[in-house]
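Follow-up to my post from last week.
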Amino acid sequence: MSRFLSNESAALEPYTPGEQPQNIPYNKLNTNESPFPPSPKVLKAISRAELLKMNLYSDPTCAALCAAVAKRNDLKPEQVIAGNGSDELLSFAFRAFCGEGKGCAYANITYGFYKVWAQFYHLDAKVIPLREDFSLNVDDYMDFPGTIFIANPNAPTGMTVPISDIQRLLEANRDRVVVVDEAYVDFGAESCIPLLYRYDNLLILQTFSKSRNLAGARIGFALGSAELIADLNRVKYSFNPYNVNRLSIVAGAAAMADEPYFQKCTSQIEKNRAWTVRELTALGFTVLPSQANFILAKSDRIPGGALYEKLKENGILVRHFDAPARIADFCRISIGSMEQMEALIDEVTKLLEEL
Amino acid sequence: MSRFLSNESAALEPYTPGEQPQNIPYNKLNTNESPFPPSPKVLKAISRAELLKMNLYSDPTCAALCAAVAKRNDLKPEQVIAGNGSDELLSFAFRAFCGEGKGCAYANITYGFYKVWAQFYHLDAKVIPLREDFSLNVDDYMDFPGTIFIANPNAPTGMTVPISDIQRLLEANRDRVVVVDEAYVDFGAESCIPLLYRYDNLLILQTFSKSRNLAGARIGFALGSAELIADLNRVKYSFNPYNVNRLSIVAGAAAMADEPYFQKCTSQIEKNRAWTVRELTALGFTVLPSQANFILAKSDRIPGGALYEKLKENGILVRHFDAPARIADFCRISIGSMEQMEALIDEVTKLLEEL
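User reply:
Got it. Predicted complex:
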């Protein structure tokens, strides 16, 4: 920290992303990436002709990408905004829909970045604990007057809130925005997108990083009424108008149009998840009921931190969270290919035998 | 604007980027892009193997890219941070080095986004007019206690401040950060980089969008002491850690390593600029003395707005700024290939003859 840093920035508590070792051949199950390469259509779309145009700015409206997202979801293009990952758009949503006298509410436990953005924008935050079983009780949010952020499926639990519960929140106060972060929705959970036709106070975030095999392209998108999306564009044009690069616009549009590949990849992850849950359960693990491309699991025989360390020593990266204390016993394990999951189970079996 | 927008966000006055018509064959001289394709080494670096890894997150530290930038400039990698365009890093600099009781100062006229970021972060801004001849008098900034932002060369004038003047600012108050935005430095101006060895209160911004032919890849970088760069990383990790995508990291590192191509492209732009200035001057234009890849020019015979419109009707895009009033008579013209500049001069000649 330099002597030049503003007090406000000195007070920030930055997010800690999962480890991203470069060029080290880990079995990488720690940041919920897809184990499958991008769609062949993406590879084709990033043509030599596109590369030769990289001297020109990208389209700040990301029209081709937003059109592809709108078409897939039966929405109008003006109901879509694209971002440099859904993280950027979440940040914009905190900026657009919260402020003085308009705080934010989110769960403890949920995506750890919500807390960081609330701090980044100096917002009052109401942090509402999950139930003992890690489920989210929407009634706890019913009277909150500010903007509500719900990850559904939740991270790092993978557990879902029923759509009917989200609808009750939307109904309860039509002058309040409910932001539903659906980064992990495509692995068997139910999306709130159909509710967009009835509620103009609903904002949905999705990403190309998980189910579209493009974490490295950094593309997220938000869906909502044209007015909500215009608000987010207002923030975007006050921060960084050219926020998505040329190749990611092309890649994203191609990925969104390849429905069969998307279905094939996501259903394979669901199968691999079911297999992994069965195997871990057989090994005595408690596994929370996940609809995401990761699971949160614990064993009574080895603490979460120790399991993380042992696996890392043996070439397998998973994620362990020291805080909050309620999940310190768990590890979050991304669902990779069958080969990756078999290697994990083999290693866990061996570790438990050695205890 | 929806009924949900926060008062703070409603008060924003977003930046208006230059027009980016998609798939319309304009002679595009309006957003200071390079007319040349990326280095052949960039095309090679974006290999099939790299594309197949787009399912994995990019390196949040952008180590390969920062190493290439550091090597080129004889700095340590920890003195470099990469961003999603230099716009993102400028925004981070406003956040890191300004705040309550620590305002920002910048010129009127300069890059129009400084005003927007000051507003985005609710900062006190001291706006200091340029001299009548559009030169910047650093003595006007000498006693300012907050953070100083200077575009050098300036936009949209293309005019430079001598490095010795920047040094005087750095000397005058060692507890104040001077941010020098060198987006346009590579076309004949002098960089402040050598001053980094002596001043830990200097932050320099550069970009791949102009002299490295990669506007569409969205890559900027900042250079400073390891402590200043750590401060910017603190902000980055509180906003969007994975801010540069995989292919841009690879493309940027390759572009930075191709010094001969860089030299060839930038010196060609300098030649084309000299030619264009001579031709416009011969046509009676006043052209400000630019060291950038654009020029600000006016004719007594046709107002700036009318020239912009006439050129656009005839397939040539330049940029006209309504405000501030002092430059409303001018058009900003990017320096493209000789073919593009010849087409511009032909059209301007024709337009003037028709008046």
